[in-house]
């Protein structure tokens, strides 16, 4: 887990090593264990290192393989790097390190851009070919590792975070009106390739981008799992019990893969089904002295701020070295401001603050954790999925919009200033286009595909990456193992919807977990002080939305802002989020990044 950056020029000039250095320095927290810069003519690469596999300097990056004519930078982990190394050795390759980075470089030499199809893991990488002048960028199937890009006629730059690109300079920072529409509709999700800024784009998940020396760019999407019953014919005709076993077996493999490290691996234990299953499977693997971590807050607005009863139960049941972290209210406000500063893009979920504070504590004990993100999208655990059951495909987009969108397109005229409105319902059209794509049997299948490939990537996955990496902590997500996702996509929808959602997962867990954990009400990381904004939190938002920077930007209609500030807890989105926080977070993020 690291931070990477780089530049390739198309105008005959040498790469701006100073700019790449600034981008690299801006990602110090992603890789506090070392840094490196490398350049050759029109190309420069930068890297910040977090030492997880091969702790020696032989694994330092940028990694140059002069014999192969390749230089690479890499962020993430290849869980099958040992198997790949043996395969490549059998084909005559020699290794000077025991790192997965060197495996990636040699795999690229052996298979070219198709190397990604051999990788099991989370990754973003750049490989430069000395002899052709070609640069290749790649991102993992589920977009677990980020890759931001800024390109014009003269050059292309890339980095693991958007603020790093801003640090390099020369990036357009106008607000992208389509992205703003998405932000205000999808609870701050801005699907790739867009970001909230016109000058920055994201390499989409499951994409390899080839950049020729002259500036020609081509993209190849190498993975899109079909959400159909025929996708995995070997599973046709399975009974529900057999599906339970298949899911459990595949999750076992996913958890086992993510134990690969040269440092200890812990677990973020919320006490919910997903993280509890990870603990159970690690215990089943014989891992002793497993460190687990839970966070809680003081109650506010009549809402509990912790789920310690469940996390304590799981920790006792499996005998983990458990760390219960109760956050005092006095720590919340400064943590909130730090969390906003750590966001690569504005993310409205209050979970960000919980993950930020949790990561601060966890990083004092371990450098790698497994976490349960993704299970709800992959196995249909959210409230908007049951209404999709049995729905005609032509009704899917409208129902999804009613259940999931923060507000309809027409309501944005009340929220946004006229200069920032779009004539068309660009978010509704995005969803309609995605749901109409072939490769999904039912309306629910199409919605699960959308959530897994888009909404998941740019909300919980990005949130966990940003908040953990702010403290040099690597988070691994077994429920996003691509083979598990493929299996879940082929699983009959009625098995996923059973038992109030995630039915197949709940049934699979009954051999592992106490019933109190499986059949409990659905929980989350609650941060009551942000869901119910008052006191210093309200003043922070008020200052952000009424100060000079916000007035100059003029994003929001003043009467609407005033109405929200007058009654900060009365205005909620479709899913119950605080509407004032959605506006305030965006303005706070723009100000934190120096966007004027």
Count structural domains: 3
Structural classification: alpha+beta
What level of helicity do the residues show?
25-40%
Counting DSSP H or I runs of 4 or more residues, the number of helices is: 25
Number of E-type strands: 17
**What's the oligomerization state?**
single chain
- Report mean pLDDT, rounded to a whole number: 95
Annotated CATH homologous superfamily of the largest domain: Aminohydrolase, N-terminal nucleophile (Ntn) domain
Strand % is 15-25%
CATH top-level class of the largest domain: Alpha Beta
Described by the principal axes of the CA atoms, the overall outline is globular
- CA radius of gyration is 23 Å
Reported for the largest beta sheet, the result is: 6 strands, antiparallel
Family: Belongs to the asparagine synthetase family.
Pfam families: Asn_synthase, GATase_7
Domain Glutamine amidotransferase type-2: 2-214
Protein name: asparagine synthase (glutamine-hydrolyzing)
Description:
By secondary structure, the protein is of the alpha+beta class. It has three domains: 3-221, Glutamine Phosphoribosylpyrophosphate, subunit 1, domain 1 (4-Layer Sandwich); 233-288 and 357-379 and 438-524, HUPs (Rossmann fold), CATH 3.40.50; 529-593, no CATH class. Helix content is 40%, strand content 16%. It contains 25 helices and 17 strands. It has a six-stranded antiparallel beta sheet, covered by helices on one side. The chain has a six-stranded antiparallel beta sheet with strand order 4-5-6-7-11-12, covered by helices on one side. A five-stranded parallel beta sheet has the order 15-14-13-16-17, with helices on both faces. One of its GO terms (molecular function) is ATP binding. InterPro entries: Asn_synth_AEB (IPR006426), Asn_synthase (IPR001962), ASN_synthetase/amidase (IPR051786), AsnB_N (IPR033738), Asparagine_synth (IPR017535), GATase_2_dom (IPR017932), Ntn_hydrolases_N (IPR029055), Rossmann-like_a/b/a_fold (IPR014729). Residues 2-214 form the Glutamine amidotransferase type-2 domain.
């Amino acid at each position: 887990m690291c931070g990477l950056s780089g530049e390739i020029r198309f105008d005959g000039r040498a790469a701006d090593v100073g700019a790449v250095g600034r981008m690299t320095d801006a990602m110090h927290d992603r890789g506090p264990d070392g840094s490196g810069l490398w350049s050759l003519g029109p190309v420069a690469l930068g890297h910040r290192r977090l030492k997880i596999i091969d702790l020696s300097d032989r694994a330092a990056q940028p990694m140059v393989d002069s014999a192969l004519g390749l230089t690479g930078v890499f962020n993430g982990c290849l869980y099958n790097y040992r198997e790949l190394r043996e395969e490549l050795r059998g084909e005559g390759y020699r290794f000077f390190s025991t790192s997965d980075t060197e495996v990636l470089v040699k795999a690229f030499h052996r298979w070219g851009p198709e190397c990604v199809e051999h990788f099991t893991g989370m990754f973003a990488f750049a490989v430069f070919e000395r002899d052709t002048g070609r640069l290749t960028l790649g991102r993992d199937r589920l977009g677990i590792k980020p890759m931001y890009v800024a390109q014009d006629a003269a050059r292309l730059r890339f980095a693991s975070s958007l603020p790093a690109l801003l640090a390099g300079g020369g990036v357009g920072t106008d607000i992208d009106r389509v992205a703003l529409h998405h932000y205000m509709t999808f609870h701050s999700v801005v699907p790739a390739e867009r970001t909230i800024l016109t000058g920055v784009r994201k390499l989409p998940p499951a994409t390899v981008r080839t950049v020729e020396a002259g500036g020609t760019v081509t993209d190849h999407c190498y993975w899109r799992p079909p959400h159909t019953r025929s996708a995995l014919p070997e599973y046709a005709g399975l009974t529900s019990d057999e599906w339970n076993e298949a899911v459990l077996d595949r999750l076992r493999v996913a958890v086992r893969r993510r134990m690969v490290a040269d440092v200890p691996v812990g677990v973020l234990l919320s006490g919910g089904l997903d993280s509890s299953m990870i603990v159970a499977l690690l215990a089943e693997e014989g891992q002793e002295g497993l460190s687990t971590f839970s966070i809680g807050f003081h109650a506010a607005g009549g809402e509990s701020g912790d789920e310690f009863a469940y996390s304590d139960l799981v920790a006792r049941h499996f005998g983990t070295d458990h760390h219960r972290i109760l956050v005092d209210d006095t720590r919340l406000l400064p943590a909130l401001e730090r969390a906003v500063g750590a966001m690569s893009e504005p993310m409205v979920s209050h979970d960000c603050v919980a993950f930020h504070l949790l990561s601060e504590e966890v990083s004092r004990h371990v450098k790698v954790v497994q976490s349960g993100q993704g299970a709800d999208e992959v196995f249909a655990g959210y409230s908007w999925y049951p209404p999709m059951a049995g729905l005609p495909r032509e009704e899917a987009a409208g129902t999804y919009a009613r259940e999931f969108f923060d507000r309809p397109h027409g309501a944005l005229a009340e929220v946004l200033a006229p200069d920032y409105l779009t004539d068309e319902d660009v978010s509704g059209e995005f969803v309609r286009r995605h749901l109409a794509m072939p490769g999904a049997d039912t309306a629910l299948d199409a919605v699960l595909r959308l959530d897994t490939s888009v909404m998941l990537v740019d909300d919980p996955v990005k949130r966990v990456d940003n908040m953990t990496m702010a403290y040099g902590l690597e988070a691994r997500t077994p429920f996003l193992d691509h083979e598990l996702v493929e299996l879940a996509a082929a699983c009959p929808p009625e098995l996923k919807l059973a038992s109030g959602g995630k039915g197949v997962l709940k049934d699979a867990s009954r051999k592992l977990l106490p019933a109190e954990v499986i059949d409990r009400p659905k929980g989350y990381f609650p941060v009551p002080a942000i869901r119910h904004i008052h006191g210093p939190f309200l003043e922070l938002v008020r200052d952000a939305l009424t100060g000079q920077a916000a007035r100059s930007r003029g994003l929001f209609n003043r009467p609407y802002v005033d109405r929200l500030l007058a009654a900060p807890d009365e205005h909620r989105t479709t899913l119950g989020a605080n509407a004032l926080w959605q506006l305030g977070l965006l303005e706070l993020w723009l100000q934190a990044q120096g966007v004027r």
